[in-house]
UniProtKB/TrEMBL annotation:
SMART domains attached to this UniProt entry: PKS_KR (SM00822)
InterPro entries: KR_dom (IPR057326), NAD(P)-bd_dom_sf (IPR036291), Peroxisomal_Beta-Oxidation (IPR051687), Sc_DH/Rdtase_CS (IPR020904), SDR_fam (IPR002347)
Family: Belongs to the short-chain dehydrogenases/reductases (SDR) family.
Ketoreductase domain location: 5-198
SUPFAM superfamilies listed in its UniProt record: NAD(P)-binding Rossmann-fold domains
Organism: Paraburkholderia bengalensis
Protein name: SDR family oxidoreductase
Coiled coil region boundaries: none
PANTHER family xref list: BLL2957 PROTEIN, DEHYDROGENASES, SHORT CHAIN
Stored Pfam families: adh_short
């Protein structure tokens, strides 16, 4: 399904990114494996993880090259695309997977913790996508696969930075889909459930939390790769601007904000009439203040 195509996968030295890179190669793609080899909070720099994935691909008969640029740095997107073009001569798909965590309750979060996560997830996705866009436009084809999260789409504790970035990526993807659709370029999101470093920091202080973590451990990163390969391929040419969730063997199409219910008053509204009549009429349709785990509460299938 990916024969002749060139794919960039960020954060591909381990976890979800690694499995996506390996699967892309297995289906015929040439792969640029981007990873800086940092710790979960973004500290450090080690080129070994990305090179190991490249070696795995080559040993299996595929073509791959390593890249150790940090997507958080200005100009990194252009340099990553330039390497892909220099080595492989073209670019067909960007998988924006790189990410870090700096979990903290909102009222205790520092500017640095906020900035670090936004720069990797949201700025990194924007920078690499923008760098690829002119090439996609010129060749009249291309696909973006962005990693969002149900933590952003639904909610989670102590992750204001991560949640804001992941919700931002969903909005960015929709804008890309709208702006580049006329050039036959597609942009979609995956919100993955999978056990990886990105979720290994979930607390297990209570029996309920420990049980939830055990459920997540059943969901391996390899479960995400088939949808990523499909969305990158020409088989998905009619799929654009969508958000999917993968949870073990389940694939969900996620809703996007639309009007739920309206109220109308011919003479207009006052604060008092809103309080007395308007809000009580809407309240039955309120979205609960829930976490992702509250919504996806059943055992993975």
């Amino acid at each position: 399904m990916m024969s002749g195509k060139v794919v960039v996968v960020t954060g591909a030295g381990g976890g979800i990114g690694r499995d996506i890179a390996l699967s892309m190669a297995r289906y015929g793609a040439r792969v640029l494996v981007n990873d800086i080899g940092a710790s979960l909070d973004g500290a450090g720099h080690d080129t070994a993880p990305g090179q190991r994935v490249v070696d795995e691909i080559r040993e299996a008969g595929g073509e791959a090259v390593a890249n150790a640029e940090s997507v958080a740095e200005k100009g990194a997107g252009e340099r990553i695309i330039a390497q892909a073009l220099d080595v492989f001569g073209r670019i067909d798909c960007i998988v924006n997977n790189a990410g870090i965590l700096r979990d903290r309750f909102f009222h205790k979060m520092s500017d640095e913790e906020w900035d670090a996560v936004l720069k990797v997830h949201l700025y990194g996705t924007f920078g690499l996508s923008r760098a690829a866009a002119p090439h996609f436009k010129e060749q009249g084809s291309g696909s973006f696969v962005h990693m969002t999260s149900t933590s952003g789409l639904i909610g989670n504790y102590a992750q204001a930075n991560y949640n804001a970035a992941k919700m931002g990526i969903a909005g960015l993807s929709k804008s890309i889909a709208l702006d580049l659709e006329k050039f036959n370029v597609r942009s979609n999101c995956i919100a993955p459930f999978a056990w990886s470093r990105m979720v290994s920091s979930i607390p297990t202080d209570t029996p309920e939390q420990a049980a939830r973590v055990e459920k997540i451990k059943q969901m391996t990163p390899a479960k995400i790769a088939p949808l990523a390969v499909y969305l990158a391929s020409d088989a998905a040419k009619e799929v654009n601007g969508q958000i999917f969730t993968v949870r073990n063997n389940e694939i969900f199409l996620m809703s996007q904000p639309r009007p739920i219910r309206s109220i109308h008053r011919s003479e207009g509204w006052s604060p008092e009439s809103i309080a007395m009549h308007g809000m009580p009429a809407l309240q039955g349709s309120f979205i609960p203040v829930e976490r992702s785990g509250d919504v996806f509460s059943w055992d993975p299938m």
